[in-house]
Structure prediction request, 321 residues.
Amino acid sequence: MNLLNIISNLFCKYMGVIVLVIATMTLFIPQTGLWVSLSWINYLLMIIMFGMGLTLKLEDFKLVFIRPKDVIIGCVAQFTIMPLLAFILCKLFNLDVALMTGVVLVGACPGGTSSNVITYLSKGDVALSVSMTSINTFLAPVLTPLITNLLLSATVTVDTVAMFISIINIVIIPILLGFIINKFFGIFTQKVIKILPIVSVIGICMAVASVISHNAEKILSTGLIIFTIVILHNVLGFACGFGLGKILKFNVPKTKAISLEIGMQNSGLATSLANSSFSSLAMATVPGAIFSVWHNISGSILASIFNRWNGNKNEQTKKHF
Prediction:
């Protein structure tokens, strides 16, 4: 069991490196990832979301009632800052319809579960991060389709009902199943939880390998533009979250949490939605796959910076904004 813990911790610590290696290999040697069918993406995400559900407890939602303002601010920021940044960047770079759809989907999705791990490594407010991720995820079936339709309706037809159903099936149901199993079989889930980082990283790697290998030629032809946009989207998200925390006079741990939560998206969901709801736009899956690679790298870098930032005495003890 100790060996399993060591392996799990290594997967968690070096997630960004592992995903980067897989992405690079499948980009330049597509044959290594073509065996992963694009049709598997939804199922891979469902497994990851089920794992997230296994880690959730009722206590994780108490913060919504204890510190509702923090959570509400985080949720509003999540579903405004990232979608707007995505739309603005797409217009500035004059992206084609397929890539624009993918970038907007990334922006319209809730925060990713990776943000909880990175917040922990950053010595941030983990309770706030987990609460924001959980609440944003449960809001996603309504808000993600609505935001996507609002930003893309003039460019592409968005079936909001189909997207709503997809998110319910791919995200909400697996999470609820995991949550229920954790509630009634807690002793069992505590043992299973130890392998979740391994399962999650493998799932992310397979999804990334699938998208990149099947679109390698197109990515290489338009790679510089989309990589630039993905990096800017992520970094500006971090910066806006950090700035919001400073403006509202959040303490240091809360500022770290909101910065990471806003900048790190559930790009796996964006990839899945692009594949299921916009199947005619093959390249729409690419921004989500690239974001999955990049935000784990940037998040790890930011964690090492945040880990050394504790602020002054006043910033550490601030509790209200």
Q: What stands out?
A: The CA atoms of residues 115 and 261 lie 6 Å apart. The chain has a mean pLDDT of 86.
